[in-house]
Amino acid sequence: MASVKPDCFRMWRGAGMKMETPTVRPQERDIVQPDAMIGKVRAWVAQARRVVVLTGAGISTESGIPDFRGPQGVWTRDPEAEKLSDIRYYMADAEIRKKAWQARLVHPAWEARPNAGHEAIAGLERRGKLHALITQNIDGLHQKAGNSPECVIEVHGTVLKVVCMSCGWKGPMQETLIRLLTGEDDPPCTLCGGILKSDTISFGQNLVPEVIARAMRSAAEADCFIAIGTSLQVYPIAGAVSEAKEAGARVVIVNAEPTPFDGIADAVLRVPIGKTLARILL
Ligand SMILES: NC(=O)c1ccc[n+]([C@@H]2O[C@H](COP(=O)([O-])OP(=O)(O)OC[C@H]3O[C@@H](n4cnc5c(N)ncnc54)[C@H](O)[C@@H]3O)[C@@H](O)[C@H]2O)c1
Ligand SMILES: [Zn+2]
User: Fold this and answer.
1) Which atom of ligand 1 is the closest one to the Cα of 270?
2) pTM higher than 0.70
3) For all residues of the chain together, what is the average pLDDT?
């Protein structure tokens, strides 16, 4: 695990959350008449030189990966499932680890293909406009869609790797999945016998400070910042929206449900992500 600065980088569910008083309210018409607003946002993107995109689980639902907090979200349907993503339960309880590994074995990411939303963001990079792509997702679909690894900032890690919680060794997830299929139910690190875990950030776990710092710096360098498919409830990364706004970027939020940052956005589009991004970004 990387070194930590607990006070600066606490996360999840509003830890350290400062709610901004909205300064700019999106017009109600922007929400109820998205077509006009889509045209406006498309023009902003055309003018922009440094677009920064922040994505959340909502961009991958159209690829068959459920989000956590949306109406069909994993935790909305089964609040107990949250335990599998909590480092305290994971480290303390072998039964939780066994369940977590079984869930990894059937994770929808293995079969998922990038959708029109991921492809539109990859197209934005090909146009030379994408300054950074900050993602809370762990599914690797942005890279599969063609975004370059250097451009993607994975603030919550990736499910494509495993990490040893004792010695820090990292390796491909596929090898551990094979161990599961051949009968191990809680495979230990082959180097030191420590507990293995997917290389993702769980509840109660510290973020990687350098990764968060890079994401925040990129947000502050944006002239157009687009948050897509995120409920913006997970901190500190939700704070990237304010960071971009304060630095003078136009802020656009594309999400089916309201977010705490709608009030400071220049445009809020409560629309399906895939087909909308194709209209805005390409
Ligand atoms: N695909 C993944 O990698 C994945 C999936 C689930 C959870 N997670 C992890 O859990 C955390 C959850 O936080 P989050 O903010 O990313 O997601 P979230 O679950 O809190 O919110 C997702 C939002 O997307 C919206 N949404 C879903 N599908 C949509 C669509 N097709 N069009 C428009 N809006 C849509 C939902 O209404 C919801 O508000 C993330 O930080 C991530 O680490 C990742
Ligand atoms: Zn180890």
Assistant:
1) 33
2) yes
3) 88
